[in-house]
Design brief:
Number of helices of chain A: 11
Oligomer: heterodimer
CATH architecture of the largest domain in chain B: 2-Layer Sandwich
Number of strands of chain A: 0
CATH topology of the largest domain in chain B: Phosphorylase Kinase, domain 1
Structural class of chain A: mainly alpha
Shape of chain B: globular
CATH class of the largest domain in chain B: Alpha Beta
Low-confidence stretches of chain A: 86-106
Number of helices of chain B: 7
Largest sheet of chain A: none
CATH class of the largest domain in chain A: Mainly Alpha
CATH superfamily of the largest domain in chain B: MucB/RseB, C-terminal domain
Order of helices and strands of chain B: HHHHHEHEEEEEEH
Number of domains of chain B: 2
Number of strands of chain B: 7
Radius of gyration of chain B: 21 Å
Distance between the termini of chain A: 62 Å
Distance between the termini of chain B: 66 Å
Helix content of chain B: 40-55%
Strand content of chain B: 15-25%
Strand order of the largest sheet of chain B: 1-2-3-4-7-6-5
Largest interface: A-B, 47 and 34 residues
CATH architecture of the largest domain in chain A: Orthogonal Bundle
Low-confidence stretches of chain B: 41-48, 68-76, 222-228
């Protein structure tokens, strides 16, 4: 009955991270049903490759890397979003203007931002930026863990995150002006 | 303080952006699909040819899981199989949610009265510890759209869920024995109640348990199941 033991070990290590997996997929795909399908498929894939996972480490980054790869495959297959991007170009071009657009760091908190506005602003980010933001802010992951999930160096995590935050500030400022 | 952090923006995202929780049911579907993916490798192949059929079956099962919705899958099966799947899902749920028993006791005089007032019937609760099947407890469950008493027994490391509910003309007859999603299911009905047993225990041990339980139920409550 070693198969059953394997199933139990898998469930104990991986199922507790279901909310994190779903949240990431939901934010990347921005559709409830697709997120459910992709997460279920990702779990089956994780189950198949579970033997390659070392039992003494945290399963969350390992699982989330499978989930995010499934999500990007899903997006790519449907041509939904342009996911290639140029780190240099995207991190330099509009930055100065962005910081001018927001009138100092305290402005955001003074405003009453609606939950819907914040959600919409996060959604304007392209998936690669949205991803690091979600992992950092909503899943409270370390740079190391995010690097593991996304499969990029820690330095790139930091620059991508910083860029994501600039973009988010712009989007929030724009949302505020529309009101 | 990490100079890379932006505490103000972080606070806004943390507080105001949705952290989507997995919808109810997703966990069960994943657990069931994992069990199903696991099931073929747990059977004893009788010959190489048989093994090939099993692999083919596993591949097919995987295909079904990924490409067809659960609803479609279920609609193609009989009422009895559907109920069996529901019973198995309840079993899996009870193992996963760390919610095996609402009343955890090996004493049937504790478990049986616990159900009174919670159900409009009184499930027979047998003490089979001598036979190697100690009682673990009981809980309320919901199977096939009806409330059910779930009695939990144990044999070695294996958990057995016994689902009991009163006769219902709409309910399909319980299966003598079948396998669903890698679990063994055994059922029967007497004059008042239906019994469905689910476990990852092998079929012959589960049958032995079923025989014991059936004998005890008949001996213990020929006419008045409430008098323990």
């Amino acid at each position: 009955m070693s198969g059953t033991d394997r199933t139990r070990r898998f469930e104990a290590a991986v199922l507790p991270h279901l909310d994190a997996a779903y949240n990431l997929a939901r934010w990347l795909l921005r559709d409830e049903q697709s997120a459910q399908d992709v997460v279920q498929e990702a779990y089956l894939r994780a189950f198949r490759f579970f033997d390659g996972f070392r039992g003494n480490e945290d399963a969350r980054p390992w699982l989330l890397s499978i989930v995010r790869n499934s999500c990007f495959t899903w997006l790519r297959e449907r041509g939904r979003e342009p996911i290639e991007f140029d780190e240099e170009r995207d991190s330099e071009q509009r930055d100065p203007a962005l910081y001018e657009a927001t009138d100092g760091p305290e402005r955001l908190l003074e405003r009453k931002l609606e939950r819907a506005q914040v959600n919409a602003a996060v959604a304007t980010l392209t998936p690669l930026f949205r991803e690091v933001l979600i992992l950092r802010e909503l899943e409270a992951m370390s740079y190391d863990e995010i690097a593991q999930v996304v499969g990029i160096p820690v330095g790139t995590v930091m620059s991508r995150l910083s860029r994501a935050r600039s973009m988010l500030r712009t989007a929030l400022a724009a949302a505020d002006k529309e009101d | 303080m990490d100079p890379h952090e932006d505490t103000e923006l972080s606070a806004i995202v943390k507080m105001q952006a949705d952290r989507h929780a997995a919808p109810a049911g997703l966990r069960d579907r994943i657990a069931a699909s994992i069990r199903q993916a696991e099931a073929p490798s747990r059977q004893e192949p009788k010959s190489p040819g048989w093994r090939q059929w099993l692999n083919l079956g596993a591949a097919f099962a995987m295909g079904v899981l990924v490409s067809v919705t659960v609803v479609h899958f279920l609609s193609a099966t009989s009422a009895q199989e559907r109920l069996a799947q529901d019973v198995v899902s309840s079993h899996v749920r009870s193992l996963m949610a760390a919610h095996l028993a609402d009343v955890a006791s090996s004493d049937r005089h504790t478990v049986k009265p616990w159900f009174s007032g919670k159900l409009d019937f009184s499930p027979p609760v047998a003490d089979l510890a001598q036979a190697g099947f100690p009682l673990v407890g009981g809980r309320l469950d919901y199977v096939g759209g009806r409330p059910a008493a779930a009695l939990v027994y144990q044999h070695r490391q294996h958990i057995i869920n016994v689902f009991v509910w009163p006769h219902d003309t709409r309910a399909p007859t319980p299966p003598a024995a079948l396998e669903a999603q890698g679990f063994n299911v055994i059922g029967w009905e007497d004059k008042k109640m239906q019994f469905w047993l689910v476990s990852d225990l092998n079929a012959s041990d589960l049958q032995a348990f079923a025989d014991q339980l059936r004998g005890a139920a008949i001996a213990g409550s020929p006419s008045a199941p409430g008098k323990h």
